[in-house]
Design a protein that fits this description.
By secondary structure, this protein is of the alpha+beta class. The protein has helices at about 45-50, 55-65, 75-85, 90-105, 125-135; strands at about 1-15, 20-30, 40, 70-75, 105-110, 115, 120-125, 140, 150. It folds into two domains: about 1-30, no CATH class; about 40-150, Arc Repressor Mutant, subunit A, CATH 1.10.10.10. It has five helices and nine strands, in the order E-E-E-H-H-E-H-H-E-E-E-H-E-E. The strands form four sheets. Strands 4-6-5 form a three-stranded antiparallel beta sheet. The longest helix has 13 residues, at about 90-105. It is elongated. The two termini are about 40 Å apart.
Length: about 170
């Protein structure tokens, strides 16, 4: 939590003599920092990623469970909760949607029941942290001739996958 300093000046007047006395006081106060949040980069996510209609709804539900490193540990309980939240009665449709989100690169499976969200779509934390995650996900370099070279450092990045079950 950041500290902020406030300075105040009080003036006292002696009404008998008319003398004014100034007193300066500096207070150190702890100011509450901005609460946790996540940023969503949406602009027609389903169209860009060619996702099935309404699959973004599951992605948003999943994002609620996302940690600052972009990792989501998926388990049976969460799938049941997502199914209820989405008004679905079939757990297999949630599994299919997760598979489609993975195929379309909105998610990256990094372990059993463990996924990393594409930080170009949804990210959580400060911009500095988000930028590091984005750079690790994919880099696009364009040479002098205009040729695009796509590199991913994601596989090289060491991630701790915690099994959440299926």
């Amino acid at each position: 939590m950041a500290s902020t300093y406030f300075e105040s000046t009080e003036t006292e007047t002696d009404f008998e003599t008319g003398e004014q006395k100034k007193r300066k006081e500096v207070k150190k106060v702890k100011v509450e920092s901005e609460p946790a949040y996540f940023k969503v980069y949406l602009e027609e996510i389903e169209t860009i990623l060619k996702l099935p209609k309404d699959s973004h709804k599951l992605l948003f539900e999943m994002a609620k469970e996302m940690k600052y490193d972009g990792i989501i540990n998926v388990n049976a309980y969460l799938k049941d909760q997502w199914m209820k939240s989405l008004g679905d009665t079939n757990k297999q449709s949630v599994n299919n949607a997760i598979s489609k989100l993975t195929t379309r690169k909105a998610l990256k499976r990094i372990g059993t029941g463990c996924y990393k969200v594409n930080p170009h779509i949804i990210a959580k934390g400060s911009w500095t942290e988000i930028k590091v995650c984005r750079d690790a996900w994919i880099k696009i370099k364009i040479d002098q001739k205009g040729n695009k070279n796509v590199e991913t450092g994601f596989e090289k990045q060491k991630l701790k996958a915690v099994s959440g079950g299926n």
